[in-house]
Amino acid sequence: MPTAIAVTSADMALPAQDERTVPAVVLSGLDQRPLEHALTELHALTEQYGYLVVICSRATPEPVVRRLHTLRALLESDRIAVFRPELPPLGIAVLARQLRQLASCDLSPGVLASAGRLLTHYIHAGAVLGSVARLDRVPVGLKAHAKSWMPGSQFAVLAHPEPQLERIGPGVTLKGPEFTTWMLVARGRQTQGDWVAGLAGQWSVHGLREVPLPAESPVWWGTGRMTEFCGYLADLSVLYQLVTSVRQTSCHWCGLDVIGDRCVFCSATPPVYEPAPLRALEQRTPA
């Protein structure tokens, strides 16, 4: 069975990208159910799949995140990973779906889990906001804060991979990817959806698709007056080639094959070996 990819709410489980995309495991209401019920569910999932990767945003309610870590600790399991990258909610949903695509391939659990850190570099996530007064995820200057209180002001914000903020006006755009992507759009209220469509044309995307706005998005962006967008790679063969082209190593702690410098399951990083003192080396050198 493939490694299970889990999200913490149903609106973060995007429709399948292709026929090979495995379904998402939805861990909804973790903080509202009795602890023993959630514990039984998580134990059953690890027994069924072997490994479980839970992806959630920085806007996921803290009681849910605490419950996840509590359950993992009670199960005393290194087979459950909780991954919270610095992406807005729509970007998190896209990343979860990319991992669901890759879960159908011949990738080991450690490589699949650490692929999430790699693939975040290829996601361009932003939003059109009616106000930046409560935005704390992207640097906002004093002038932008002041203009945020002017009626009718709207701002184009890129949160990832490089923060960028512009007040929408003639000729305003955002720096896009240097490769062709698809674009996903989720509309809130009172924003200019046509501006995002124009941005999609400037980014030369393959196509634009629309999904409901995740419930965590207004929390992450500081306003419900928004349209969230995300440019991403959708082709499974491209995703697979990206992941398999990176050198794999074995985690020195849990033994899983991983890519990058950190195991997502046990959080171990490669040990740092101090160079031997010069005098000790001289003593070992034959005369």
Write the layout of secondary structure elements.
Elements: E1 4-7, E2 25-26, H1 35-49, E3 52-55, H2 62-75, E4 80-83, H3 89-102, H4 109-119, E5 124-129, H5 142-148, E6 155-160, E7 164-167, E8 182-187, H6 193-202, E9 208-210, H7 217-221, E10 226-232, H8 236-244, E11 248-250, E12 257-259, H9 278-284
Parallel strand pairs: 1-2, 1-3, 3-4, 8-9
Antiparallel strand pairs: 5-6, 5-10, 6-7, 8-10, 11-12
Helix pairs in contact: 1-2, 3-4
Please characterize this protein's 3D structure:
By secondary structure, the chain is α/β, with parallel strands linked by helices. It folds into 2 domains: 4-122, Dihydroxyacetone kinase, domain 1 (Rossmann fold, 3-Layer(aba) Sandwich); 124-232, Hypothetical Protein Tm841, Chain: A,domain 3 (2-Layer Sandwich). The protein has 9 helices and 12 strands. The protein has helices spanning 35-49, 62-75, 89-102, 109-119, 142-148, 193-202, 217-221, 236-244, 278-284, and strands at residues 4-7, 25-26, 52-55, 80-83, 124-129, 155-160, 164-167, 182-187, 208-210, 226-232, 248-250, 257-259. The longest helix has 15 residues, at 35-49. The radius of gyration is 22 Å and the shape is globular.
Features:
2 domains; alpha/beta; 4-stranded parallel β-sheet; globular; 18% strand; single chain; 6-stranded mixed β-sheet; Hypothetical Protein Tm841, Chain: A,domain 3; Rossmann fold; 287 residues
Helix/strand-derived category reads: alpha/beta
* Number of beta strands: 12
CATH topology of the largest domain: Rossmann fold
Gyration radius, to the nearest Å? 22 Å
Any idea what the CATH superfamily of the largest domain is called?
A: Dihydroxyacetone kinase, domain 1
What is the 3D form?
globular
Mean pLDDT: 88
User: SSE string, helix = H, strand = E?
Assistant: EEHEHEHHEHEEEHEHEHEEH
CATH class of the largest domain: Alpha Beta
Looking across the biggest beta sheet, what order are the strands in? Answer: 7-6-5-10-8-9
Largest sheet: 6 strands, mixed
| Low-confidence segments | none
How much helical structure, as a percent, in the residues? 25-40%
Number of helices: 9
The CATH level-2 architecture of the largest domain is identified as: 3-Layer(aba) Sandwich
Q: N- to C-terminal separation? A: 59 Å
